[in-house]
């Protein structure tokens, strides 16, 4: 299983705390959902080549089950959609996301 943390780098590092605990899940790769988009007014998804490079550079393999998460599942759903556009087939969203993980005291967290 490969976990993609779709939150901002500050949330991932623990500098932006939005739950009882801050940081990230062990083994999670941080690919901020906004990187799926072109910049500027009227942004849209990146073209297939740059979008694939974003996930390939993040070491996201097609042979793994991929689980996306963010704070509440909304940004994770966006990353899920980007991966499905690229042809990844075994992709899921952890809809509890950091709101659940970060508020439990029995889940592992790295900072």
Question: Characteristics of this structure?
Answer:
4 strands; alpha/beta; 111 residues
3D architecture notes:
The model has no long low-confidence stretch (mean pLDDT 95). It is globular and about 40 Å long. It has helices at residues 9-13, 48-57, 74-85, 97-101; strands spanning 2-5, 29-30, 66-69, 91-93. It is α/β, with parallel strands linked by helices. It has a 4-stranded parallel sheet, covered by helices on one side. The protein has 4 helices and 4 strands.
In short:
This protein has 111 residues and is an alpha/beta fold. Helix content is 29%, strand content 12%.
Low-confidence stretches: none
Structural class by secondary-structure content: alpha/beta
Outline? globular
> Can you give the mean pLDDT?
95
Quaternary organisation: single chain
Strand order in the largest sheet: 2-1-3-4
* Biggest sheet descriptor: 4 strands, parallel
Q: Classify the helix fraction into a percent range.
A: 25-40%
Portion in beta strands: 5-15%
Separation of the first and last Cα atoms: 21 Å
What is the element string, with H for helices and E for strands? EHEHEHEH
Number of continuous helical runs: 4
Rg of Cα set: 14 Å
The tally of beta strands, per DSSP, is 4
